[in-house]
Amino acid sequence: MTTIKIQGMSCQHCVNSTRKALEAVPGIANIHIDLARGEASFDGTADLQAIKAAVARTGFEVIE
Predict the structure, then answer these.
(1) Residue 46 is part of a domain; what is its CATH number?
(2) H-only helix segments in the chain
(3) For residue 64, what pLDDT band results from cuts at 50, 70 and 90?
(4) Number of structural domains found in the chain
(5) N or C: which end of the chain has fewer CB within 10 A?
(6) Across the strands, what pairs with 53?
(7) What is the pLDDT of residues 4-63, one digit of tens each?
(8) What is the DSSP letter of 58?
(9) Range(s) of the domain holding residue 18
(10) Looking at beta carbons, which pairs linking 44-53 to residues 24 or more positions away fall under 8 Å?
(11) Is the dihedral of CA 40, 20, 25, 44 positive or negative?
């Protein structure tokens, strides 16, 4: 399972938007988003740049 930190999420709507964006990235499955920790975890082998781009389209940022 891969975990990424996401900056900017503050509510359940943010979580839902981020989940939809990640679901659209080919190669990602079993997405779990933890709002309190600002993290998204998922299975798969998707390209990190594709993940960052999907998150950025929702208005948030993947931080390393």
Answers:
(1) 3.30.70.100
(2) 12-23, 48-57
(3) confident
(4) 1
(5) C
(6) none
(7) 999 999 999 999 999 999 999 999 999 999 999 999 999 998 889 999 999 999 999 999
(8) T
(9) 2-63
(10) 44/2, 50/25, 50/26, 51/4, 51/22, 51/25
(11) positive
